[in-house]
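Researcher: Let's continue the batch. This sequence belongs to Diaminopimelate decarboxylase, and it's 416 residues. Same format as the previous ones, please.
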Amino acid sequence: MSELAELFDRPDAPQTPAYLYDLDELARSYAALRAALPTPAELFYSLKANPHPTVVAGLTASGCRAEVCSPGELHVALAAGCDPAEILYTGPGKRDVDLADAVRAGVGLFSVDSPYGLDQLDRVAGEHGAEVRALVRINDDTPAPGQGLTMTGVASQFGADVRWVLDRPDLFGPRGHVRPIGFHLYMGSNVDGEDALVAQFTQSVDTVRRLAAATGVQPELIDLGGGFGAPFARAGGRPDLPKLADRLTALLDDAFPGWPGRGPGVAFESGRYLVGTCGTLVTRVLDVKRSQGATVVVLESGIHHLGGMSGLRRLPPIVPDLVTVDAAAGPPVPGTIVTGPLCTPLDTWARSAALPPLVPGQLVAVPNVGAYGLYASLVAFLAHPMPVEVTVAGGRITGVTRLELTRHTVIGSDRG
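Model: Same format as before. Here are the structure tokens for Diaminopimelate decarboxylase:
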């Protein structure tokens, strides 16, 4: 953590709390994932992991396509230089106004979850004189093992059940302004290891073959999703996937003879693996005290800066690793309670952490929070300032920005 100390312990240092994004590590993560995928294969970056403009621009320049699921993400992707015709617009429910904005911007590929979704997209595209392509998202029969968050094989807003498509393929066919070109499958996120990844992709490929045989439609493109795991708020590096490319190439060769010269194009998605290890949250200790026999450490950051969804108990609570930045670590103090500054007892990162003695004003850092860090937190809760976001390349700061929430009048209060 000496590099962080050099960046933040000087008069002109960025304010804290700060999310720091290491663009060199971002490039290494992209190279590692591309090497782990078969050639050729498309790679989409899922902006929901981290839509910071510099992060998106870096991945776009490297060759990633963008997967977006909101007007805000679309705006960031376009500003980052993404070709709108190459953007994939996803999401289980889409407003007409958002589809219209995407069509007008030139987005050419949509993931659609139901026959109504195809009808809606057809209507909006027709109103704008556009022709668009669609991937039919599929909810497979059974979930695949080894997932951190299951997104298929259960009753879900994501995708059309396999049996529905097999029984009524006519519902998922072409419309006047929409041409379905293949299928989109996403089994789950944060998949544990190479074997589990191969198992889920094998299941998805088998499902695509079943659908193609039943419907008589040979897909032009199949999006097999992702789920490539990476550590979150804990120390450690991204997983190595040394044999994945060869194993996936063999899978596709067997499933689609003649691939890649013949057969469908194949795409994968990633957010967590690409950006997770490039991010670090740097924050300061505000207070240290004893309460009911325990040491309590109060930080600048809490669930409004990291782990907001788990803070609401929507997900298992996170227990982030804290690393001292600006002082030598003493022997750990067991049973330390780590909290943020919010006026709620839910603002707790740990109830019994083993931390070195800390003092007010000291810098600490949470590693591996480049994905689902700031952008999956309760940033509007209690109106604390958002952290600054710092980009670094070659050990030098290349940019410092801060998001702010502002209120605008949409309809005047004096309207008649």
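Researcher: Any comment?
Model: The chain is about 25% helix and 25% strand.
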